[in-house]
Amino acid sequence: MQLAAAMSRLGTESAFEVLARATKLAQAGKSIINLGIGQPDFPTPPNIVEAAVKALRDGHHGYTPANGILKLREAVAADMKLRRNVEVDPERIVCVPGGKVTMFFAIAMFGEPGAEIMYPDPGFPIYRSLIEWTGAKAVPIALHEDKGFAFSAEEVLAQITPRTRLIIVNSPANPTGGVVPKEELDKFVKGLEKHPDVAVMSDEIYARMCYDGVPHASLTAYPEIEDRLILLDGWSKTYAMTGWRLGWGVWPGKLAEHATRLAINTHSCVNAATQFAGIEALEGPQGSVGEMVEAFDARRHVIVDELNRIPGFRCVKPGGAFYAFPNIEGTGKSARQLQDELLNETGVAIISGTSFGIHGEGYVRFSYAASTEQIQEACERIRRHLAG
């Protein structure tokens, strides 16, 4: 069989590969602490589960509109008003099976041979994978440790060329936990005035996970780019619903129709019962979100302190999400070497920084979506290994 050349350009997400290896080792009897996979270690709140069960019992078993049932899109619009103070027409909202679908649609709309798409590096690996799959040139936006892994608006704007079609922004960020300050976003949006044809996709899937009393700064707060801004958000992280596969995109009016058409051509619609769970998540009690984020915040302090006690490690405190991204250059090991050593020899699963881009060498990602006891035990195993 002869596959399309584009398939050779498609990358992967290493966290799932490490998860598979860790699972295999665990099945063989090895003690594994998994700090690699990026998903909350909390269950989906019971009221959300019950909403899905009720929807199934009430007979919601068929197709729905491709962009999501109206009540769900209205709930998203209400959430946008409540949390971002932005009025959004539900017709601009397209609900999809997970945040990656909004990402795929946006990159597919703008990516083609001869085009350039900018993406954060270190960053979520699927950005680069999908950009290259379309045939576009993937242009990395370097994120620097000394800036807390926030981008420099000046550096980003300087990389724009006549071929630039789309810029991807992610804050709070995976894998670094970096948060872009409002002041940088101000400069970024101001600079975009000189580039009216460049679109922006803002991945804000971790928007509810900001710490130290710093409010989330959203690009939706800038009406001057509303006609070219795509917002990516969803339920997976905020409501511990990773396996439910439910996300939303807020699209410029002129692009919402294209996103809906892509939905029709790919997945038809989101699982009907899941959409009712999504309504309950947004409209129901929010206490579980606060409790989960509070727990992540406490673990954040623990893991940063523990990592900074490991010889050869240094770790800046992440401002959001649930990831720590320590510098491991002092160990004398490459990121991939350390990842493999720790999994095979100590049973600690983490992800190499090079899995997140060319600027990830010298770093590894830890997810602190795990208990404090697991975090402490993992760091102790690493200390013993490196001392050995």
TrEMBL record:
Pfam family name, one? Aminotran_1_2
Q: Which GO terms describe its biological process?
A: amino acid metabolic process
SUPFAM superfamilies assigned to the protein according to its UniProt record, in alphabetical order: PLP-dependent transferases
Record-linked InterPro entries? Aminotransferase_I/II_large (IPR004839), AspAT/PAT-like (IPR050596), PyrdxlP-dep_Trfase (IPR015424), PyrdxlP-dep_Trfase_major (IPR015421), PyrdxlP-dep_Trfase_small (IPR015422)
Which reaction(s) are listed as its catalytic activity? L-aspartate + 2-oxoglutarate = oxaloacetate + L-glutamate
Q: Does the keyword Nucleotidyltransferase apply?
A: no
Q: What is its EC number?
A: 2.6.1.1
In this chain the Aminotransferase class I/classII large domain maps to 31-382
Q: Which cofactor does it need?
A: pyridoxal 5'-phosphate
Q: Which UniProt keywords apply?
A: Aminotransferase, Pyridoxal phosphate, Transferase
Gene3D superfamilies xrefs: Aspartate Aminotransferase, domain 1, Type I PLP-dependent aspartate aminotransferase-like (Major domain)
In the record, what terms sit under GO molecular function? L-aspartate:2-oxoglutarate aminotransferase activity; pyridoxal phosphate binding
Name the PANTHER family for this protein. ASPARTATE AMINOTRANSFERASE
Tell me which family the UniProt entry assigns to this protein: Belongs to the class-I pyridoxal-phosphate-dependent aminotransferase family.
**Name of the protein described by the UniProt record:** aspartate transaminase
Species in which this protein is naturally found: Marinimicrococcus flavescens
